[in-house]
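Q: Hi! First time doing this. I have a protein sequence and I read that you can turn it into a structure. Is that right? Here it is:
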Amino acid sequence: MLSEKEKLDALAILGIDLSRVQDLDIMMERILTEARRFANADAGSIYIRENDFLRFTYTQNDTLQQRLADGEKLIYSTFELPIDEKSIAGYVAATGKLLNLPDVYAIDPACPYHFSKEFDKKTHYGTRSVLTIPLKNHNENIIGILQIINAQDEAQNVIAFSANDEKMMLHFASIAAVALERAQMIRAILLRMIRMAEMRDPKETGAHVNRVGGYAVEIYEKWAKRRNISQQEADKHRDMLRMAAMLHDVGKIAISDLILKKPGRFDEEEYEIMKQHTVLGAKLFSDRQSDFDEAAAQVALNHHERWDGNGYPGHVDAQSGKTLKGFEKPDGRPKGKKKEEIPLYGRIVALADVYDALSSVRVYKAAWDESKVLGVIESESGRHFDPELVEIFFTSLDILRAVQCRYRDAD
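A: Yes, that's right. Below is the predicted 3D structure, encoded as structure tokens:
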């Protein structure tokens, strides 16, 4: 539990800490974690504003988390709330005013808003004190809602949020909103790049790349935990990987429509041209100014490599696409990278991308039944995919399904 001095000191460096996070989803997780730490809150949620609705986007709950086995994650359904005065979050979004409720089960019936008890009934959780704060940008427009639940004293008894908590969290929210808006801008830029690719290749949708990014992060998290990688280091990699995974096929923008949009199978020459999207994608990040550029190039270049060495583009120079000396096949083409020669990010995105491609509708196929998809993933362990990552994949199915539901394709 932070002292008042520790809270003030933490506020002073909060903006710097949040500036290191680039990805929107990971930003929301970090904001919520820090908000709960500031107020010693057991749970909390973030809602993002989308026009006249609030989208329930991210949530945490220590009490419910403790009921799960080690390594498991809480899974919540994504839903929307109208911005009106009927719900607590909707009321705060509509009025722009902080709302501090000592006991949501004792709300005055005269109040326009009410507390829905369905979640508590379903999970056997006891929501009591709730502090709901608007997240406003520099123009005072509300971009989201931060809600923290069940303040705790040092003995972990649930107490009301104090007036000092209100003051502290308003300062916190002003810093967090700046960081959140920046992360939203970065996500929008990435999605615009992807929409450019989508104009060329209808398979490259925003939903598809968000799913691939989400799957990749979940797989990486468990991989990192197995190796006792520090949370700070893991967070850094999660941030880069999620954004890099979203751009895995961005090199397709440089492939001719005659090939990219061909309805039938490629002939050998066309397939060789198509495979160049990996090198072309990596070239987009050749002027590397950050760790993200390195991660994005790594993913673009390596996400079609195979664990058994039969993938592409193989051992090539990322700038020229030419075969590296000493890695030539008898016909002069490059040998494929195999096993740990393939960078980790490439191995992860290879699995995430195939899982999503098989699970999704394409212009040339219907979505496969899940049992068939999982059968292919299992059979390709040690051939197409890193066996350890496949093992992690199967222990993560519940959360991967939740990612899939969150980023559904548009009807």
